[in-house]
Structures are given as structure tokens and as C-alpha cells.
Amino acid sequence: TDVKYQGFRKDNGSYAFVYWAPTNIMTTDFESTMSLEIACFENTPKIVDLMDGGIYEMPKDMYEKDEYGIYRIRHLPIKDYPMMIMCGNFE
């Protein structure tokens, strides 16, 4: 399954990255994760479940941050509906 994604940026410098795997859950079981690197300078990235509106802190064992503000995120859950990673004051 191909992962689809889109990025958004606000005037205040915050941004979000939305991703999902379009899957026909009526005919297919789907469970997956992905890893990525993002720059997030203001705070730790948060995961937003766009289905229920929940905003979640990332567990510390899920990411590493280097001295340049780059986060290496491992085992990010992929759903058949859009999820979002939020950096800065994107709310």
C-alpha cells in the first residue's frame, strides 16, 4: 500500500504533516508503521488522530532528537484514515 501525505504551514512558522494509507478495509486487513525524519524547533512533535480529534504526546522511545532539531521518528502508526504530526503552535 502506498502512503499518501500532505504538508501544511501556518504564518506563525508552525506546520503539520498529514499521512494515511488508502486501504479498502472491507476486503483487506491493514496494520503498519513507518519511520521518518522531521525538523521541529519549537517543541516535541505531537500526533493528532484526525478521526477522534485526540492530540497525543509521542513516547520518548519512539524518537531521537539531534543537535539541529531533527527528529528521527520510528514506528509511527499508519491508519487507513489521515493522521497528523504537528510541530509548533499549529492548533
Can you describe this structure in just a few lines?
This protein is mainly beta.
Characterization of the model:
The protein is mainly beta and 91 residues long. Helix content is 0%, strand content 49%.
Shape: globular
Biggest sheet features = 5 strands, antiparallel
Return Rg in Å: 13 Å
**Which percent range fits the helix content?**
under 10%
Structural class: mainly beta
Q: What sequence of helices (H) and strands (E) makes up the elements?
A: EEEEEEEE
E-strand count = 8
**Strand line-up across the major sheet:** 1-2-8-4-5
Low-confidence stretches: none
Question: What is the arithmetic mean of pLDDT?
Answer: 87
State the helix count: 0
Proportion of residues in extended strands: over 45%
Alpha-carbon distance between the termini?
30 Å
Q: What key phrases describe this protein's structure?
A:
91 residues; mainly beta; three-stranded antiparallel β-sheet; globular
Topology:
Blueprint: E1 4-9, E2 15-20, E3 32-39, E4 46-49, E5 54-57, E6 63-65, E7 70-78, E8 83-87
Antiparallel strand pairs: 1-2, 2-8, 3-7, 4-5, 4-8, 6-7
